[in-house]
Structures are given as structure tokens and as C-alpha cells.
Amino acid sequence: MNIRQQLNDIFQTAMIDAGIPAECSPAVAPAKKAGFGDYQANGAMAAAKKVGSNPRELAAKIVDNLGDQPMIEKVEIAGPGFINIHLSQAWLAETLASARADERLNIAAVTEPQTAVLDYSHPNLAKEMHVGHLRTTIIGDALARLLEFQGHKVIRQNHMGDWGTQFGMLLAHLADQMENQDAEVALKDLEVFYREAKVRFDEEEGFADRAREYVVKLQGGDADCLKLWQRFIDISISHAEEIYAKLGVTLQRGDVYAESQYNDDLPVLVKDLMDRGIAVEDQGAIVAFLPEMADKEGNPSVVIIQKKGGGYLYATTDLAAIRYRANVLKADRILYVVDARQSLHLQQAFTVARKAGYIADEQTLEHCAFGTMMGDDGKPFKTRTGGTVKLAELLDEAVERATALVAAKNPDLSAEQQAEIGRVVGIGAVKYADLSKTRTNDYVFNWESMLAFEGNTAPYLQYAYTRVRSIFRRAGVEPSALTGEIKLATDAERALAIKLTQFGEVLDQVAKDTFPHVLCTYLYELASTYMGFYEACPVLKEGVSEEDKQSRLQLCDLVARTLATGLGLLGINVLEQM
Q: Which of 64, 111, 143, 336 is most exposed, with minimal Cβ within 10 Å?
């Protein structure tokens, strides 16, 4: 149910019937001020300019051609040609009743599902996941959940770094370590293991030569070397899986499609680009020159496809990935949840892929860029000693801090209850603090603000859900037992009804534009609107008629279910007790 789209369709038809060209948009949007209707159709001004007419007179023609519309109670022409739309009270009540009866809250699956490939998380398997992997992982997961909820086929692609010259160094060190202990023990702490290998590579005589020999063996398909490499990969992925389980994201081992899986296609791809004249030899390297991305002086953008010594680069692998996703996975949309600092690299890869015909015109390549998580000092988030923050340690600290807050607020709960609530609140707080920010912006990581029970935070929304659910416990009634019609007799009830019915259009917007913060803002506004309703419209107080009580409890039920559904799409759990 997307009210905005329904109204847009109604007014589009009225505009065409009024003789306005079909390319003119009704420009329907929610009203920004109380008293100006629930929605506004603002397209008359632009249409009047196009057809050379008076905008207010054109607005009147549009209104005259609306006909009888059950969802619209009245319309008014305001100012130079705005059309204020007041939704029908009866229609709103019926719509809410229908949403209550539907497990999906009347959010219908799309009629034309697409195949969406989401590239996100992609840790380097030579190191443990750090805070730099947080944003890509949770933004990508939220988008995957939402697109699947809408009925699209979502293929997760965890493009893990599991290849390259560094693995020669790591395999040589692992081979030595396994003489005295098994691989699991040796790789228990990937950061320590990596540092040990790097020190040996830089300082130990003969080790660097052994590391290079391992690279040659690995690339040559040596069976023993590949077996050792696979052991390293398996254990490394297990480390990542522990993080995914702790974060509550939907990535599985089967979603891993690592760099190494494109190896066989890389020489084929380079030859194809050269045969097409897109890439040429230049100073021993294979290079694509892109006049489409020329600088101010007219110099083409340069993309190295193969290094002078024959090695391949990220650009080569990413082009192979585009070919695979477009032609094998048959993607309609390919979304890359990747740091904004990779914008130029991805734009170059997308341009080469388009030129080479690796992707059809109707298939989209979308960079869902995100900014950096900053510390209070305004610099990228680091430890106090300046080191990289391990993601596992950050999540553990979030749970510890949240558990302490819960224990202080609810000392009567058992330690087990406090720990479980602390886990859900702590992880939810970290995820929501990120998702609620416009993803393209940098943001400052702050424990106090993200764990606050006031403002636009996960704890506030989780607590709002808990408070709504507690009403039913106090009333001694299950939502399924409620009867009677939903009444919208007060301004507060009507405001809550309209906010509830906007859920579908918000989901459509996030799916289209890939900005999860829009959903966060909606959920916060819904909780705030509910608080206004609860204060203005008593639910369980003495003197409230049974009819009003049943109606308002139904609104409470819809709020709780919408909050739970919306937070669930963000990958955040709710609790019956906090």
C-alpha cells in the first residue's frame, strides 16, 4: 500500500483528462504544514509553464477531472496552484483495519520482481574484521532485507579478498607454525598472525624469497599449497561468521564469492578488452583510456587492467565480477555498498563495463557509497593508541555498556534477563546509530548518544515498542481478540492513522534510493506521533468507553507491529520487556 503512488496515479489521470501532456508529473507529496491537507499535488505550476496556461486555472481543471475518489474527502486549491488533498476519514479507518488483518500490514509484494545483486561486507581474509567493515555490512544487510521483503530476488555477494601476493607471506608463515601446532591454534588471532608474518617478511633472511615461492605455487595450482590456502580461508571465514552472528546479519558462507573465483576469467577478460580496442598496451602494462571521464585538461582517465609484470588489479577482478553478475546471475540491479573513497575506482569499472557491453542498458550498476565513522576528535575512529579497532571488540563493548544500563534501570531482572536485553539493545544501538545517518555522510561515533533512551536512537524505539506491548498486558487482552471499528475522532488519532498508512511509501522510497536513514526517520516520527496520541487519547483510563478503548487498542497494535517490522528490516530486534 503506497498512498503517495495511489494519489499520484489518480492525479496523473485527471491531468491527462484535463488535456495536460502525459509527461507532466502531478508531483504528489505529503503536506509539510498542518492545515494544508494531508498531501499536496504540486504539478500544476510546472505543467502550466509547459502548456502556457495560468497555473491556478489549470489546477481547477485538474480538480474538475478527479471524479469520485473514495480515498479523498476534499481538495482545495491554494496559492498559485497547489492542490491540498484531505484523505477520507472512512477510507483511512478501512485501510487501517485491512492492515491489521494482514500479516504484512498491507505491504503488497511487487508485481514485477527484479534480481538484485548486493556486493557488501567483503572483509580481507588475511585480517580480522575491523570497524571499517561495519557500515558496509549493516547497510548492505538492511537493503537486502528490505528488497527481499518487497518480493525481489536478492543475491548476496560477499566479495572477500582471498588472493594476491600477501598470501605467499601468510602461507609460508602458516606452514612453519603448523610444524608445532594445528592451523586453528595458529590462526586464533588473525591480527597477531598477520603481524608476525609481516615482521618475518621484512626482517628474516630468506623468508621473503620463500613467500614469493608460495605465491608462484599458489598461482600455479600446487595441490599442497592450495590445501594450505583453503585451510587458511576456512578458518578466516569462520572468524567473519562469528561477527555476522553477533551482528545479526543475514550473510552466510554460501554468499561468499571471493576474488580467487574470478582467476580463470582474468586473462580471458584482458584479451577481450584488447580485441575490442578498449584496452591497449602502454609501457608494458595493459591500460584502458577513458575519454568519457577526462579531466579539465581533456586528459582521459586511465585504468590499468594488467600490470607490467603480468599481475592483475582490483579493476580486473571487479570487471570480471560485473560480467559474472550481469550474465550468469542475470541481475537487474547490481548494488555496491562500498566506501565513498572508492567512487572513482567504481566509476571507472562501470564505464569500462558499459563500453565493453558486459552489461545491458536496462541493467543498473549502483554505488551505494558511505562515509567514514569518525571519533570525537574528528578523525577516523581508532583505538586510544591509534590502532585499528576490531569489530568484535567494539560489539562486545556495546553489549557490556548496554547491559550495565539495563541493570541500573531494572535491578529486579535476573542476570540472564539483563544480559539478553543488553545484547539486543547494545547491538541494535550500534546498527541504528549508523543506519539513521545519511549514508553518504561521515558521522561521529559516540557511546552516550547511541545508547540514549531519548531521541532518534534504537533504545528509544525498542522501548517505545515495549511500552506499547505492555498496554496489552495491563489490559489483559491479546490484539487478536480486539473487536469493533477503528474510529478517528480526534486530531491525534487522525495524525497517527496517516503516519501509519505512510509505511509502504517509505519502504518503496528506501528500496529505490537505497538510503536506510529514511526508514529510521519514519520510525522515529511514528513513535513520536504515537506519544502525542497516547497523551491526548486515553486508552485504559477509567471513563473511556469500550468502543474507544477497542479502537485505540487497535491503533496501538498497528504501531507496535509497524515498529517491529520496520526495525526488523533494519536488522534490529525488539523486546517484550526492557
A: 111
